[in-house]
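Input/output pair, single chain:
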Amino acid sequence: MMKEMGAEGVQVEELYTLDMPEFEAVAPIFGLIFLYKWRPDEMRDGLPLPDPAPVNPHPEQLHSIFFANQVINAAAVTQALVTVLMNIHVPEVTLGPKLSEFKSYCTHLDPGLSGLAIHNASFIRDAHLKVSRPPPSPAADGLGPPPRPGEVDEDVYHFITWVPVATPSGTLAVYELDSLQDAPLYLGEVPSAAAAPPPPPLPVPTGDAEADAEAEARAMAAAAAVRPPGTAWLGPAAARLRAYVEVYSVAEVRHLVLGVVAHRVAALLADLRAIRMRETEGTAREGDEEREADILHRLAVEEDRSTGWAAESARRRHDYMPFLVETLKLLASKGELTALIDAAREQKRAAAKAAAKAAKAARGGKAKASKGGGGGEDAAGGSRG
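Output:
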């Protein structure tokens, strides 16, 4: 979906354990997303902050953060992804002309209008429709039960995101962006690993000053390109995220945690090109051969994952209703539909009868055990008498 909107250099990973080893395995992470099924009785004010709450020393920074309210129920994931993308400021990630223009347009809008802007942006809507489940087929008209008055939509989801924002002092401020709130929530600051210089290159002198300078520049660029940013900002964010997950897990609310991370294939290909360049120039390092084999294996794994995602997306978007309707018509024309319906009803009745019998037997067993226990006590009491 992000690629459809024009963004490059990023992808989405589903997260499960929410601990540092998992974060480091998919780093760099540019933002976290907590998506959960909204209910009318949920806490609208979010989780409370610790007391005393952290004081934001950079209040002027709030105006530079993209923050939008969720003004429509649909497309929560799309809105969450746009929110994270708008707050990424690294050269490895490019937004593309449409997202860049959209970001510039929303600069002076309040959160409510920014949410409406997301909803009304045709290129965002088109990207969402290309990967989302299509609306019910016209062939299904009249086949489903009508909605009940006052019934809550089963597909209403809400999202909360966490992003790091660089401060003028060189640290990273961590913000919680809850689309039901009025403003970003400041969680604290952490040191920025990106502010540190990249690791020193390891050029092999050749005696040619110009060639050595070029090799050193390439090595520096490669080191800066593949070096992931720090994961320290994930500490405050993950603490809040785990608290939300715990609350909604106890309440048995469906939820999903996503991380917006650097595109793995692009990073692996850049690393592979650097290794092969060293091989061509005769400056290969120890371990390059093993590293190259590992990269090729990981590229194959990513290709398999991409193929699986494409197949899953195709199945999700395919409209099976015309096939089902035609199958029912064919069975009816052969006179087999009524018999199948009767058999299904009989099977359902038999299953219900077996379940009721099992429940009755379970209740009878408990009653016998209780009665047997009472008789034992009477007998014991008589013997004592």
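The longest helix spans residues 337-384. The beta strands are 10-14, 29-37, 157-166, 171-178, 185-191, 255-262.
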